[in-house]
């Protein structure tokens, strides 16, 4: 996988991690991240383990807030691309699909986007 694709996959998984919970990751959240990384992003087992470990390391409130701030500092266009990519992945996931409304609200909160900005993206 190219460095650009790997960076995008990492950012999408970071966004998913932040959308799932502001708390330290539990086993359920780790399973969701692993499933999305494996099935939708087609990452290798080693890449998945590395990314899930890195996302699990975001355990304190300060680390979570810094990760949110970093995503919000990216361009508006990139934030829309991240949101759209995550919504597409979630729509294909049996567990995330039925929770699309909550996921959309959380993604908007994390990325600092308005619901009107993503309405056409989230289905």
From TrEMBL:
This is TerB family tellurite resistance protein. Residues 13-119 form the Co-chaperone DjlA N-terminal domain. InterPro entries: DjlA_N, TerB-like. Gene3D superfamilies: TerB-like (1.10.3680.10).
